[in-house]
């Protein structure tokens, strides 16, 4: 029976999801014994102290948040396999639990571009790998589309300051940004900092600043005012894959280590981004009505009744602004809501389709595949396996 040290922040939803995956693998492959080591041990006894404790306890492996500092080779020399969570920078000597961070940034930018935004901003840390690479992906996509990104970044001196921010300087930056603007934060904690600063400064969300986080930490997203949209990640699968890699390392069944890549899954839309950027008040009214009533059996005529325009005039302006006919925009939004519910609930595809007002539930798999490239069942399996 293997004994594993977990040096992880157990309060974060990301870490909890990792632990769920690790526990799942453990149960399937012989119950392991875990020591949940609090993070303060990292500061108080350092790597040498952790190594000494591991030897005394007879640890077979370690998964944890570690600083990139000299000493990690001592674990290798001691024959104790270690996998590092992507905390500040990646290790070269040992495997990392990291992420497709640029891919998440690109996903965030693409999400905002499809909503019609022309102004973009990123809030994060330039000296932390997962923030820096998300910013790079975000900017890459935005620049390719002919726009620029406004930045507010911190260079942190101490780990204890990782979540520290200054409302005054942040508020000043937010007030200076062109409006309306699409703002991606490096994670949900920073996304909530933005919503707090906006509320303090009287900046309307999402009308003036639309805010998107990363990790889909439901507690943080729910406490945000308004609730924070976020990019979900396949973190539980990352935990499962991490345990499998550690198992192979402990069994000496691996010639060369490799990193565990946690992939982004989709954007979970909440109130902080539930808007389409347009100066056309009739189109804005139409879009707001669609988003607020997407779970009903909406017809184009329902939208026409919300604005003083003929159906033909509305269709023409709507297509010019969004790139889609009204009926197609409604359909695409329903598909996005369906894909979100596939990952958030245990409801059947048929039940979700009915809840979202799909009139032709028999063809939902084919329609879903046209947009997502796979059937609803395949989509759910892909991200929840």
Walk me through this protein's architecture.
It is a single chain. The protein is built from 17 helices and 12 strands. The protein is α/β, with parallel strands linked by helices and 385 residues long. The strands form 2 sheets. It has a 6-stranded parallel beta sheet, with helices on one face. A 6-stranded mixed beta sheet has the order 7-6-8-9-10-12, sandwiched between helices. Helix 1 packs across helix 10 and helix 14 (326-344) packs across helix 17. The radius of gyration is 23 Å and the shape is globular. Mean pLDDT is 89; it is low at 155-165.
Q: What spatial order of strands do you see in the largest sheet?
A: 2-1-3-4-5-11
Judged by helices, strands and strand pairing, the structural class is alpha/beta
Number of DSSP strand runs = 12
The quaternary structure here is single chain
Identify low-pLDDT runs.
Answer: 155-165
> H/E series, N to C?
EHEHHEHEEHEHEHEHEHEHEEHHHHHHH
In brief, what are we looking at here?
With 385 residues, the protein is α/β, with parallel strands linked by helices. It has helices spanning 13-28, 40-44, 46-57, 72-77, 101-114, 129-144, 167-176, 188-201, 218-223, 235-250, 281-292, 300-304, 311-322, 326-344, 349-355, 364-372, 376-384, and strands spanning 3-7, 33-36, 61-64, 82-85, 96-99, 120-125, 149-154, 181-185, 209-214, 229-233, 260-262, 264-268. It is globular.
Descriptive labels:
385 residues; alpha/beta; globular; 17 helices
Task: Spell out the blueprint of helices and strands.
Layout (H helix, E strand, L loop, with lengths): L2 E5 L5 H16 L4 E4 L3 H5 L1 H12 L3 E4 L7 H6 L4 E4 L10 E4 L1 H14 L5 E6 L3 H16 L4 E6 L12 H10 L4 E5 L2 H14 L7 E6 L3 H6 L5 E5 L1 H16 L9 E3 L1 E5 L12 H12 L7 H5 L6 H12 L3 H19 L4 H7 L8 H9 L3 H9 L1
Parallel strand pairs: 1-2, 1-3, 3-4, 4-5, 5-11, 6-7, 6-8, 8-9, 9-10
Antiparallel strand pairs: 10-12
């Amino acid at each position: 029976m293997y004994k594993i040290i977990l040096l992880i922040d157990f309060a974060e939803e990301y870490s909890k999801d990792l632990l769920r995956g690790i526990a799942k693998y453990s149960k399937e492959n012989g119950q392991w014994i875990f020591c949940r080591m609090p993070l303060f041990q990292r500061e108080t006894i350092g790597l040498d102290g952790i190594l000494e404790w591991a030897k005394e306890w007879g640890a077979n492996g370690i998964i944890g948040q570690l600083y990139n500092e000299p000493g990690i080779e001592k674990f290798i020399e001691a024959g104790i396999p270690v996998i590092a969570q992507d905390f500040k920078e990646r290790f070269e000597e040992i495997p990392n639990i990291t992420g497709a961070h640029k891919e998440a940034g690109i996903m965030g930018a693409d999400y905002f571009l499809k909503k019609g935004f022309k102004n973009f901003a990123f809030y994060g840390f330039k000296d932390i790998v997962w923030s820096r690479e998300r910013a790079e992906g975000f900017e890459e996509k935005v620049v390719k589309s002919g726009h620029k990104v406004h930045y507010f970044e911190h260079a942190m001196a101490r780990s204890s300051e990782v979540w520290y921010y200054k409302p005054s300087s942040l508020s000043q930056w937010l007030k200076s940004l062109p409006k309306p603007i699409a703002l991606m934060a490096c994670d949900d904690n920073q996304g909530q900092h933005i919503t707090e600063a906006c509320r303090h400064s009287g900046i309307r969300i999402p009308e003036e600043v639309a805010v998107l986080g990363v990790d889909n930490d439901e507690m943080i997203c729910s406490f945000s005012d308004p609730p924070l949209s976020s990019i979900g990640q396949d973190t539980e699968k990352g935990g499962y894959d991490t345990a499998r890699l550690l198992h192979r390392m402990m069994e000496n069944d691996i010639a060369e280590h490799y990193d565990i890549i946690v992939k982004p899954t989709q954007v979970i839309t909440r109130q902080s981004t539930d808007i389409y950027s347009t100066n056309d008040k009739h189109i804005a009214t139409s879009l707001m009505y669609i988003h607020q009533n997407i779970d009903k059996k909406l017809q184009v005529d329902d939208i026409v009744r919300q604005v003083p325009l003929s159906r033909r005039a509305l269709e023409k302006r709507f297509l010019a602004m969004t790139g889609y006919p009204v009926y197609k925009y409604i359909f695409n939004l329903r598909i996005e809501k369906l894909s979100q519910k596939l990952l958030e609930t245990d409801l059947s595809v048929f039940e979700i389709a009915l809840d979202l007002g799909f009139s032709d539930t028999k063809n939902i798999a084919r329609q879903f595949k046209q947009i997502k490239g796979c059937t609803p069942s395949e989509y759910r399996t892909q991200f929840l396996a």
